[in-house]
Amino acid sequence: MYVPAHFSEPDGGRIAALIDDYGFATLISTAEGGMHISHAPLMLDRDRGASGTLIGHLARANPHAAALQDGMLATALFHGPHGYVSPTWYESPGVPTWNYAAVHVHGTVRRIEDADAKWQIVTRLAAQYEAQSAQPWDPDLRKEQWLKMLGAIVGFEIGITSIEAKFKLSQNRTATDQENVIAQFDASAHPDSHAMAAMMRENLARKNA
User: Fold this and answer.
1) pLDDT below 70 — which residues of the chain?
2) In what order do the strands lie in the sheet containing 24-31?
3) Which of the residues 84, 143, 149, 164 has an alpha carbon 20 to 30 A from that of 12?
4) Torsional class of 191: left (φ above 0), alpha (ψ -120 to 50), beta (otherwise)
C-alpha cells in the first residue's frame, strides 16, 4: 500500500480500534492453484504475539478454506470510513480527492480443525458483536446442536508479522481546510461521512493536544 508519511498511522491503539470497529475483512492468500480472496469477520487478539493475532473462520465449502495451510502467508485488508472530498470545500485551491482509513495486516496462517478451538473462535467473535445487543445470543442454549455444525467450518489464526495503516484525513491541508471538510462530512446524510468526520476531528484534537 502506498502510504505517504503524513498519512501513515503509527498508533497501535488507533489501528486496533479500526480493526475492532470494521472487522469484516478481505482475506487474501496465494497457493499453488492461484490467489484466493474471501470476505470474513476477523477478530484481533492483542495479547498473543508481538504484534497480535487475527482469528477467524471460513465455510469448509469455500475453496479458500482448503487452501489455508499452516505456515502460508496471508493478508487481511480492513476498510474504515471513507468519502469523497470536493475542492469546493477548501479555503485554498485544491483538487478532488478521497479521504479514507485502511489497514493491511500481513502474517502467517495456522489452520484450526479442533472442535473446541473452533467453538472458541465462533463464540468469541459472536460475543464481540453481540456486546451491544439488548438480548445477546447465548451460545450455551442448544449448544449440542451448534457443536454438530462445527464440521462445516475451518478455523484459522494469522500470526501478525507486519501492519500497514493509512489514515488519509486531509492532514496535508491547513487546519481551516480540515475543519471545512469535517463540517461537510457532518452535514452529509451518508453514515460513513459521519464516521469520517469523527475520525478527522479526533485527529485534529490529537495534533493540537
Assistant:
1) 209
2) 34-41, 24-31, 73-85, 97-112, 153-168, 53-59, 43-45
3) 84
4) alpha
Chain segment 165-178, per-residue pLDDT in tens: 999 999 999 999 99
Q: Which three cell numbers stand for residue 93?
A: 485551491
Q: What pLDDT was estimated at residue 188?
A: 95
Q: How far is 209 from 206, CA to CA, in rounded Å?
A: 5
The percent helix, strand, coil of the chain (3-state, each to 5) is: 35, 35, 30
User: Are residues 113 and 155 in contact, defined by beta-carbon separation less than 8 angstroms?
Assistant: yes
146-192 confidence digits (pLDDT tens): 888 999 999 999 999 999 999 999 999 999 999 999 999 999 999 89
- Residue pair 52/44 in contact (Cβ under 8 Å)? The answer is yes
The answer to whether the CB of 137 falls within 8 A of the CB of 126 is yes
